[in-house]
Amino acid sequence: MKLSIVIPAYNEEKSLKAGVLEELDGYLRRVDYPWEVLIVDDGSNDKTAELVEGFISSHKGFRLLREPHRGKGGGVIAGMVKAKGDIVLFTDMDQATPITQLEKILPKFDEGYDIVIGSRSGRQGAPVIRKLMAYGFSMLRLLVLRLPYKDTQCGFKGFTKKASQKIFRRMKIFNERMRTQGASVTAGFDLEILYLARKLGLKVAEVGVEWHHKEGTKVNPLKDSWEGFRDLMKVRINAITGKYKF
């Protein structure tokens, strides 16, 4: 199988009723390679799982993984380690980055890259506070973790299966045993991924992708800024104390 798409889902009833899975299915039915979509329900307390089950009952290639509530990080990891594709992509349910952007991601793997990350140019429609958060955080991650990327936080990242297995089984701050409350979209998840990729010597490409701000986002500027900084420092401390094994 060429491609697995992992989509974490926590209380995504609104997006599901808006037809995001129908759009995804419509696109994938037109490609000429085998694929699967793993929707990871992160212990939702609305009708997310029920709606997904109804959809997959009549759409081949889609699977539902029911997981305890661990936040986005735990949900993504659960899906990534169970994915069967040679290339594994995780993306957001609301499709702020449209699935059509796969056409920019996939060719990079043919060029020999292990990981390809989306980069949101200008963050069209995003509130000013989110743009300021992004700029400040980019300075911190460069200084503390030496990550040179323009955008580490875009929820559209692809991995070879080999790279995925190497990274997601090594993660310390975010893992399959974690527990959380609420939606939990902390920035530290992506930072830990990319720090491990750098230390493992994996080739990472960053490509510009379309991105559209979606109303009802789960981002909380103050809370997420603090949690992002906290997790950034956790990654650095783990590195200094030798907790990551390479």
From TrEMBL:
It comes from the Bacteria. Keywords: Endoplasmic reticulum, Glycosyltransferase, Membrane, Signal-anchor, Transferase, Transmembrane, Transmembrane helix. Residues 4-168 form the Glycosyltransferase 2-like domain. Pathway: Protein modification; protein glycosylation. Its EC number is 2.4.1.117. GO terms for biological process: protein N-linked glycosylation. One of its GO terms (molecular function) is dolichyl-phosphate beta-glucosyltransferase activity. Pfam families: Glycos_transf_2. It catalyses: a di-trans,poly-cis-dolichyl phosphate + UDP-alpha-D-glucose = a di-trans,poly-cis-dolichyl beta-D-glucosyl phosphate + UDP. It is a single-pass membrane protein. Belongs to the glycosyltransferase 2 family. This is dolichyl-phosphate beta-glucosyltransferase.
